[in-house]
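=== RUN LOG ===
request id: a7f3
mode: sequence -> structure
chains: 1
length: 366
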Amino acid sequence: MGFRCGIVGLPNVGKSTLFNALTETAAAQAANYPFCTIEPNVGNVAVPDPRLYKLAEVAGSAKIIETQLAFVDIAGLVRGASKGEGLGNQFLGNIREVDAIVHVLRCFEDGDVTHVEGKVDPIADAETVETELMLSDLESLEKRVPAFVKKGQQGDKEAKIAASVLGQTLELLREGKPARLTKPKDDEEARVFAQAQLLTAKPVLYVCNVEEANASAGNAHSQAVFAKAAAEGAQAVVVSAAIEADIATMPVEDRAEFLSELGLAETGLARVIRAGYALLDLLTFFTVGPKEARAWTVHRGAKAPNAAGEIHSDFERGFIRAETIAYDDYVAYKGEAGARDAGKLRSEGKEYVVQDGDVMLFRFNV
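=== RESULT ===
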C-alpha cells in the first residue's frame, strides 16, 4: 500500500531540491523563482528497512522488493491561494489527492536565495499555508453544512450525520483551527468526515530545511517548528536538502562514511519515512521465500484478511488463514522450518490483528 505525501510550502523553501534528493531524480526543476514547479511531479521511493534484507539473507531469497512510497512535488503556494492567487486552485486540488502533507519550511539563512515574504520565519510560513487551506475548507463547508442541516431536518439520515460532524468542523474553522481537530463520536461520523476530503483534515509532517552545519542538531528556527508540531500533535524532522542532494549523486558505498563525517546516523529520507509512518499509523509485514523477500504496508489495526488483500484481492476474498512468524523468531530460528519446529509458527484466522514485523504466508481458496 504505502502512502502518497504531497510536498508543499511557500516558494523557494527547498521543496523541489528535497523532492529531487528523496527520489534520486531530476524530475522536478529546482530554480530560484516562484512557480518553477507547475505540474506536480510524482516520485516513488523504496522504503529502507534493514529487517527485509536480513529476512532475505536467512531465506536465501533471490530478489528483494521494498514497499514503495509516493512523494508529490506540488507547486509553491502564496498568500491568497484560497481565492485563486498564484496557482492557488491547482495547488489546492493537488493537495486534495494526497494522504498526508509534508510541509517544507525554510529554516536557513541565505542572502542568495530570495524569500517570498522577505524574511525567514518558518512559523509564519506554516501559518500562511495553513490559513489558505483553512479558508478553502471554510468556504466549502459554509456552502455544504446548511444544505446538510436542511436535508437532515427532512429525515435524511446520512445528511443528519454530516450536519453533526461537519457542523463541528465548521465551528473549528471559524475559530481558526484546522479540521483535523474534529472529534467524530462514532464510526459513522468518522466515515462521513473522511468523505468530506477536507484539506486541513490531512495529517502534517513539518520538514525543517536547515543549513548543512545544523543538519544534526537543528537550529533555533527548527526548535520553534518542533514546538509547534508538538502542540498540534503533528510530526517534525530536521533535514538539509543540500546534503540530501549531495547524497543522491554519490555511490551507495560512500554514503555511510559521508553521513558519519557530518554527525548523521541516517539520511533525511529515512527520517521522513519513519515520521510519515508514525503520522499515518502504518506498519510493515513481510512475505519471504526462495524467490523473493517482500515488504508490505498496512494501517495499524489491520486484520489478516486486509493484509492478504494488499497482495491480491483474491487472497482477501478467499482467505482461510495466515501462517505467521514474528520477525525475531524467523531470524532466531533461521527461517520458516526452524520456527515451525520450535513452535513459533502460528495459524491465525480472520480476526488476527497484524503486528509490525510479522512474516506471513496466506492460505486462501477462491
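=== NOTES ===
The chain has a mean pLDDT of 86.
The CA atoms of residues 232 and 316 lie 37 Å apart.
=== END ===
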